[in-house]
Write a structure and sequence with these properties.
heterohexamer, A: 113 residues, alpha+beta, Alpha-Beta Plaits, two-stranded antiparallel ribbon, 42% strand, elongated, B: 444 residues, mainly alpha, Ammonium transporter fold, globular, binds adenosine-5'-diphosphate
């Protein structure tokens, strides 16, 4: 089992959800994040002072999947979140040792989906 | 009652309801006005000034309502537009609007276009107490009317929100408020051809609300819907980011309407103003009741945004005839307006016309309803004449708005880039956030 | 001063303070009113209309205050209730409330119940300038009183917030505002038995605030506390989600109180209205000072929610006697109210009575204090009579509210499901969020 | 026009513009005032009461603006200060302020200091209708002036926000509003030496705004900038947390200004009040236009915070001469004020003076500009005398504020601990959050 | 050492905290999240248009524990967060390589608690 | 590759960003969090009732780095976030199996930076 963490542009969230849905990856968790990366940020100005905003809004996805779903998940995300512009984001993959469904107490592969 | 009142040469037609409040029009020209005459004049003028600041506060109402019903990422932009509009309204009205709207059509004039010159000028023989037959001064007249003017542009602002380019919108507003609004306004309130025809619009269901509403419709059609609003033919709701702000807006608008309608009596005449207060409030209350009932039935859940729109619908609906319908009729008008607005919001959305705040439903649709209602219920009013008036304003405003928006679109573009729209106009147009520090899902 | 003023057959008792403002009551019936008489009449009526819109804006004040002091997940529900209540208040008052409250008790009537018929009807011989002895028109009278009526229900709204079922609450409001409030109101302002007894309540410490407060108390007791408020016998604070909203609410309420109390003079009488402005403001300021001082001492930290409640406490406290106490006394009354409200909030919470916004402490407890204070400090007022009045209203309102709430509870239930309460009434009752996009810890 | 009007011994100087509104000053003393006289008196007083509640609502405007332009973690603190200030203003003005500001300097007095005793006392021979020559009652006079007094302290509040110790600030406010403001105020409005010299300040560009502004400057300098504002010599913007709140604040301030300036006519004189309404509004609109234009050019992006400040700049700028400049001049004054305020905000920040809300730029800099402008454009006014007045107020207020702040700093400290500042004053000073449940990046 | 990530219903947070507290697990970190899972979502409606909300509010817990605390932590969460209804949430367990206490620089097992 | 998770005091964010920047660690993601730890919390009071707030505001950093950047990252964080007071926070290190740059599809070490 793997835990996939992805940072994407907020405006891509719906497209990514849709793409995952089509690959039958129906479960995921989302948090708001600020990201600092290659993307330069932009300039705001407030009351005459220039602000360099280099923490940009990103959406963080967390998706626990079984091994055979790893590649489809990555493909779906890369495909739907890519605009080709700097700032499109990253995907991180971690080993997931255990997964437990709180409602039933089920464990492992069965609990993921 | 028309509003032509300038040049000292026109008589203020006394309110139709209640007793004639003052019988001193004749003596007013006498050398030394009596204390009683001065007192009467002062109370009339004081009321008109109160009405003026009430109409002013409607601009805060619009600013709050519009920002509340749109997304957090476009809030700075909306507040900026609303702050600009009141400035634009006052400055253009001072520059030319007032004298376009009240040119003082001469006897025998066709009453289509007139212009009394740039800037303010009460005239050499200006006498405050005879200016409007003792109802208010030249300055009050100007400012009260100027506050109305800006309203028309504000209505457009809400409908085109979240995608219109700031500079293009401001330019449109300057022209529409500075030129179109006063010219078409002169047809009725300036004593022009529609007034002569017997068209009736007490406080502006048509002259203000529909005039704004038509431009809103044209603007929305030329801009197209917001990105993400209609996906694969399905309408996706884009929720407003702060319903408390929207509710504050509606309550402030209702408050302002006491001045909008109450001030349109154009004097402090006790019976007339108080009667207008009652019809206005009862229509608003009935609008709320109507919208809640129908939306609860149709949508199964009581919808706050509909209740708020229902309130405004009742207010817009009563505006044309607030002084000529009975209290019971005002409730009926408001109730129907509340039902209409719910239907209109749903149908307009079905028609893929994306109006984020429901401005077209509230101001245009209910503005038309209100104008008709004044014809249906108002004693001595003709539905036919009302229809003519509605059509005249509709045709003219649609053409005018289309031409202005069209030229702007061709020359400088109307809409922000897709990228800017996605990220929000606040950062795109202003480089500033409305809620710095707050964590907001901007994906929505 | 009682408020009975309808039917043209009762005399407006002139303000007790200052000089008699108009000596033309006799001439008013003459054929053609003089300009001076008309001016006097118009200024009186204009002031009453201003007071009317000021009282109107209190409803926005209540909406803001109540939503600010409760959780974000119940905000839509609170705004919906407040929007509905003003509509309910106006419509029921038009339907029957006005004629229940001012039935025009006949000479010799016991003054307990009267009804002048459904809907509005100024009567065949209606003459605006004699209607209320030249102080205001029939329409002003109706609307000013109607704005008061809705206030009583709003008070209940805050206390039962975050758990009451919407439909049940709306039904309760319709009955309470439409029937109970005007009937008990007629006992004093309608010229009924308590008025004849000499009971004094200038602008409604008892008639409005306590009448609302008693129903709030009954509602809270029948509903029980919010889930999570008292855990293992320990009171857990449930924090309001927006103190700016709460502060806006309190400032708007103070603003509205200028009309609430100032309008209760029932004319523009310069000396009386301005005096009431001063006592009202000074009591509010003293209420703030009292609450800040005591809460800083007791709680060690200066508590904004207490400062805001202290302001309202001072305003409620002065309402019964704003015209009959001295300025120094008004400060004393406000100061004591500020201290009382802090104690009441703490004690009521200790008693496991869960009142999210402190409505019972502010409106009921300080309403009682204000009514007593009018007896203590008001010249020629009797504390004993005040106690009788307080008791009469208390007993009647508690019984009425208990019966209405009881029947509603039995038939349709009073409280939302636990699940709905946890998730928030906004989603449960309305399927809508107040702050779409904002990330909010809804676990709180 | 000076404002000295107490003791019945001074004549109300009639408005300079338009016709003299009332010629009955002589008869007013007669035994039974005529209905006409009473009507005139009542309408004057009613307008002054309306102006009073308009000035009151400015305090909500300030509270909203200041909290909107600062960070969420200091919001409770700001609201607390603003709620306290209005209470402090009213209570100190009642205790001594009113009688310090209008001591009724005797003939031949130097007009520097006078005191008519503690508490309110209209005097034994008080007659409402002769008190201010039939313009308003003693109570109106007191309350209108009291509402002004609190404004000065509010201005300081915004400038020292986010770091000042609550108790120290409250103590400063009590002394500054209770003693300094009324004493320096007496020099002009109390009929003191600057009034005798011909210094002109219609509604308080200097007497209110600069008096507040000077103290704000001193406070900011003694406190130093907020932590994180200037890092390694670079100015870091610290963004306000809610621009809707800021916009609400500005619109409410504009609304209040109708009373601030309109009420400073000190009667309901139709021509004068309406003229002041026009100049006030046009200056505000021009201020918006000026600030938008210049900030769009300089900063490349249209800056909402600058547009809002431009509006206030226009309002402050017109305040000194609203009744003596022409409409066209009012637009020029506002336009320049709008430009000045943008420059001032940028330069003051460059000078490492950390004023979170721009209070010094708006109230002090534009207050000075407005006072000069009254001298430049006002007929018969002298720029030289205006400069003397500005200097006199500047020197006195700076010294007074420095002494008071200095002693407080020495005795109890002025600033919260660094830790408290980082975490926010809401938790540090009040143990309370403004937006409970909302997820907010408090690192900013 | 393990890193335990749990998604629970927001209204269960207090109960879970209490249950962990009783097992002497006193340290944890919490973030807001939106979850998409078996739980169907609900319908909102806004201005006459129906909205299917399938991103539901969840609370995300992150708890670093030593091996012997893993089971007690899981038990405590499952026990206190379970309502038996769909949407109760999931627990994910990851291997934690290192843990450092910023204040003292302590590492490993000692730094966790 | 490692995934470094750090909880720090919100007011230290700028300092930490600066310190990381100096070590050329330019990419990171940030979320808001509430933390419950040794730090006792503080007392609020609301309308006369005392509240014990033991969920304190923290900022959560997530930084994916290659092996040779692990120690510099830890050092930078510890150095800049430490105040010596309880509540300074924790750093957790997890093994990161894979990293993908959405924009280019790059994988592994190249995708991290
Ligand atoms: N090494 C990293 N550690 C943590 N988050 C990262 C890392 N690299 C990128 N991110 C996240 O991904 C987002 C996009 O990264 P960026 O470098 O701007 O885009 P791209 O990979 O397309 O060049 C960043 O804003 C940040 O949130
Ligand atoms: N595979 C997964 N990856 C990430 N988060 C998940 C996953 N499965 C469930 N979740 C989280 O747990 C929450 C509850 O899951 P759900 O399937 O609705 O409940 P249950 O497990 O009781 O059927 C989801 O809303 C989501 O936040
Ligand atoms: N075992 C843990 N699991 C998850 N988060 C933790 C853990 N220990 C500490 N934290 C996070 O680190 C923050 C600081 O921890 P705390 O114990 O207060 O500080 P210190 O380590 O300086 O004593 C906590 O508020 C919490 O967010």
């Amino acid at each position: 089992m793997k835990l996939i963490i992805a940072y994407i542009q907020p405006e891509k969230l719906n497209a990514v959800k849709q793409a995952l849905y089509e690959k039958e990856i129906l479960k995921l968790s989302i948090t708001n994040a600020l990201g600092c990366g290659q993307q330069g940020g932009y300039h705001e100005s407030y009351r005459g002072v220039d602000v360099e905003v280099n923490l940009l809004k990103k959406v963080r996805l967390e998706i626990a999947v079984n091994e055979d779903y790893v590649q489809p998940t990555i493909d779906a995300i890369v495909h739907s979140a890519r605009s080709g512009k700097i700032g499109d984001g990253k995907i991180f993959i971690l080993a997931l040792e255990e997964c437990i469904r709180i409602r039933t107490g089920e464990k492992g592969k069965d609990a993921i989906g | 009652m028309s509003r032509y009142k300038r040049m000292g040469m026109l008589l203020l037609i006394l309110p139709l309801i209640g007793l004639a409040p003052m019988a001193f029009g004749q003596e007013a020209a006498a050398d030394a006005p009596s204390v009683a005459d001065t007192a009467m004049f002062t109370v009339n003028n004081t009321w008109m000034l109160v009405a003026t600041f009430l109409v002013f506060i409607m601009h805060l109402g619009f600013a709050s309502l519009e920002s509340g019903l749109t997304r957090a990422k476009n809030t700075v932009n909306i507040l900026f537009k609303n702050t600009s509009i009141i400035a634009i309204g006052l400055l253009t009205y001072w520059l030319c609007g007032f004298n376009l709207m009240y040119p003082g059509f001469e006897e025998g004039s066709k009453g289509i276009f007139g212009f009394a010159g740039f800037l303010l000028n009460p005239g050499a023989d200006y006498n405050p107490m005879t200016y409007a037959d003792g109802a208010y001064t030249y300055w009050t007249d100007f400012l009260f009317q100027a506050m109305f003017a800006a309203t028309a542009a504000t209505i457009v602002s809400g409908a085109v929100a979240e995608r219109v380019k700031l500079s293009s919108f401001l330019l449109f507003s300057i022209i529409y408020v500075g030129v179109v609004y006063p010219i078409v306004g002169s047809w009725k309130w300036g004593g022009g051809w529609l007034d002569q025809l017997g068209f009736y619009d007490f406080a502006g269901s048509t002259l203000v609300h529909s005039v704004g509403g038509w431009a809103a419709l044209v603007g929305v059609l030329m801009l197209g819907p917001r990105k993400g609003k209609y996906v694969n033919g399905i309408s996706k709701p884009i929720m407003g980011h702060s319903l408390p702000l929207a509710a504050i807006g509606v309550f402030l608008l209702w408050l302002g309407w006491f001045g909008f309608n109450g001030g349109s009596v154009l004097s402090a005449d006790a019976e007339a103003v108080s009667f207008v207060f009652v019809t206005t409030s009862m229509a608003a209350a009935a609008g709320v009741a109507g919208a809640i009932t129908i939306s609860w039935i149709v949508q199964k859940k009581p919808d706050l945004s509909m209740a708020l729109n229902g309130c405004l619908a009742g207010l817009v609906g009563i505006t044309a005839g607030a002084d000529v319908v009975s209290v019971n009729e005002s409730i009926l008008i408001g109730l129907i307006a509340g039902v209409i607005v719910v239907a209109a919001v749903i149908l307009i959305d079905k028609a893929r016309i994306d109006d984020p705040v429901g401005a077209i439903s509230v101001h245009l649709v209910c503005g038309i309803w209100g104008t008709l209602a004044a014809g249906i219920f108002g004693e001595g009013k003709s539905v036919m004449t009302q229809v003519i008036g509605i059509a005249a304003y509709g045709i003219t405003c649609v053409i005018a708005a289309a031409v202005i928006f069209g030229i702007i679109k061709a020359v400088m573009g109307l809409r922000v880039s897709e990228d800017e729209e996605m990220r929000g106009l606040d950062i795109g147009e202003h480089g500033m956030e409305a809620y710095s520090g707050f964590q907001i899902f901007s994906s929505m």
